[in-house]
Amino acid sequence: MILRELKTNMAAPKKKKTVSKKKPKKVPKRTAKKKRALSLRRSRLNPVIGPAANSYWESEAVFNPGAVMHGGRIHLFYRALGPDGISRVGYASSKDGIHFDKRSSHPVYMPESVTESIKHHPYTSPARLSYDKALYISGGGWGGCEDPRAVKIDDRVYLTFNIFNGWHSIRVGLTSIDENDLEQGRWNWRRFVFLSPPNERHKNWVLFPEKIGDKYALLHNLYDDDPARVRVEYIDDINLRKPLVLDSPDPQLLPDRELAWHNRTRSVGPPPIKTRYGWLLFYHAMDKNDPGRYKIGALLLDLKDPKKILYRSNYPVLEPDEWYENDWKPGIIYASGAVVKGDTLFIYYGGGDKHIGVAYTNLDDFVKKLMKNEHAVFSKKSALVA
User: Fold this and answer.
1) Phi then psi for 309, rounded to 5 degrees?
2) Omega into 47 within 30° of 0, i.e. cis?
3) 141, 354 contact by CB (below 8 A)
4) How far is the C-alpha of 45 from the C-alpha of 36, rounded, in Å?
5) Rg of the Cα trace of the chain?
6) Mean pLDDT of successive 10-residue segments in the chain (386 residues)?
7) Superfamily in which the 37-377 domain is placed by CATH
8) pTM for the model
């Protein structure tokens, strides 16, 4: 039903962009790819959200959105950049997952300085900034709350995000909001906590959307000594009194390792999606034969023991081939939000560190194709993919 409805929507001609008068950058022509069984289909209306010229805080770029489904709507929490280079969290929502008819005119979550935190503006958080522009730049920005991931557990929506206290101290933060406040647009976020310790570099940790064994499950690293496993930590109370000290390698120092189609694993994408076959997880990686381009792969994790990888795609399921995926920072597709509406899986991603796109597929069909023999089955005996 939903896919049929989507196909009707997709048939509409692409709308002209009104935000910027610049002509889209030409994407270098590539050899036509053979149609693959396992893939995601982009919306023909992409990008579904772009920079807003009349809003200072999101006039430069909007990208890397977290997503949750609640109250019959898909809610996006996206990273936004203005001329000051500070990353703030914006908000938009949609009934069908394609047309976003509600969008906040102000940030719904953003960092603040020590001075500002004393008065505590209602749309800010106590996430203080301390970074050196000469040392670090991420997606065109200089600190703030980056790349939010969202999950709904019980009656609360949780956001994990990257927060910068200098290049040598990139940390993972967590905040949450009551579902009733979300519905009413009251941004009464719980005071944030650091999940990761100071003086270390950690990024892109994600919560599973439900407890496992009556504990919160936190996927904090895709790299493990065993290529058939990922790193997951189980937590009794998510409102930590002190940061977690985990055996989690620095994401900037991970060694290259050839797995399936890639040699460098970059980061986890959206929080895992529960299916009857296992936890579906998307991730970002790079191919040495096609350097400089972020591509998206797929994993299936064991339901009871999500540290265990059951299947891995033999090739990327989405690659940065469209103009809006090469507009500001060429060759970037960065998925950070995923929701299921009916039988349709929507994947929300940042394109070129400037735009928000969406791709979709039938969830059950996608997982079944991932599990076919043409895709990599992982086990202790055969961890590496030929």
Assistant:
1) -85, 125
2) yes
3) no
4) 22
5) 20
6) 43 42 53 76 98 94 97 97 87 98 93 47 43 56 85 96 71 93 94 86 94 96 91 92 85 82 92 98 94 94 96 95 95 97 97 97 96 56 32
7) Glycosyl hydrolase domain; family 43 (2.115.10.20)
8) 0.86
